[in-house]
Amino acid sequence: MKNRAAVAVAVAAAALVAAAPAAAGTADYTGTAAIGGRITLEVKLSKKGVPKKVTEIRARDLPGTCEISGAIPLDAQRAVKVKVSKKGTFEYATETDSYGQQSTVEGKFSKNGKRITGKFVYEGHFPAEGPYPEENCSTGESTYSLKKGAADPIPHVPLRAR
């Protein structure tokens, strides 16, 4: 009986040791924007599972408004290198382009690191494509709420900048 208990304790300890390194790496935080659409942030984690850096922003079907086309769903994918502060906050802004467009994302991780809440604006100048003319489009400002490990409906396409 004592041997079984010792084996059980040894197996449990080995499982905990094996699980610890698994926390390191990256995690996807996925959720919705208040205006609609889905957002995923890919986050680099420390060995202890603490968020350290946002490495990619992906969005699908964000309701946007374009100068000529009017209401249209917008998609985005951008590799970034945004450090997370010790307080769990981060900010990112694109350079304002020659058309005056700038996208921003701000966020804060929950104390346990399982959720992110924040706000964003997605703006861009889009070339003519299919039925759409060349024009500026924007989502306007919106809030978002993301959860670690939630199903990510946005296909991940590897990007070079990491």
CATH architecture assignment? Beta Barrel
Major sheet:
8 strands, antiparallel
Which spans of ≥5 residues are poorly predicted at pLDDT below 50? Answer: 1-22
What is the H/E order? Answer: HEEEEEEEE
- Which structural category do the helix and sheet elements fall into? mainly beta
Query: How many structural domains are formed by the residues?
Result: 1
How would you describe this structure to a colleague?
By secondary structure, the protein is mainly beta. It has a single domain (24-148), classed as Porin (Beta Barrel), CATH 2.40.160. It has 1 helix and 8 strands, in the order H-E-E-E-E-E-E-E-E. It has one helix at residues 2-22; strands at residues 25-33, 38-45, 51-66, 70-83, 89-93, 104-109, 115-126, 135-148. The model is unreliable at 1-22 (pLDDT under 50).
How would you summarize what this structure contains?
The chain is mostly beta strands and 162 residues long.
Topology:
Elements lengths: L1 H21 L2 E9 L4 E8 L5 E16 L3 E14 L5 E5 L10 E6 L5 E12 L8 E14 L14
Give a quick set of tags describing it.
disordered N terminus; 162 residues; 13% helix; eight-stranded antiparallel β-sheet; Porin
